[in-house]
User: Fold this.
Amino acid sequence: MKLRFVSIALLAISSALAQAPDNTKVNKRDDVKNPVTADQQSNNKADLDLVRNIRKEITKEKNLSTYAKNIKIITRDGMTTLRGPVKSQEEKEAVEAIAKRVAGDGKVESHIEIAPPK
Assistant:
C-alpha cells in the first residue's frame, strides 16, 4: 500500500514537472543587472510628485485597460521606470508617451510587457 502511494506521488510530481510552463522569456526579461523594483521607490518629494502626476495622467485616459492603469511607476532621482503588463502595443505606447510627457523624454525606462491574450 505504501509503495503504491509513493508511486502515485512520484507520478504526480513528474507529470507536474512535464507540464511546467515555459517561462524562458520571463527569465530573460528579469535577468537585468540591478532591476528597479517597486520597493526601491524614492521617498523624496520631487520623485513622489512625479509618480503621482504620471499616475494621474494615465488614469485620466478612458481608453486604457485596468492593466495599463495599474502599471508600476518607480521613480528615483528623477528617473522613472515603468513595469508590468498591458493589453496591447497601443497601450504600451500610450503609457510610455504619457510618462515621457510628464517626466521628460530621456527620463523614462520602460519594462512594460504585452500580456498574452486569455
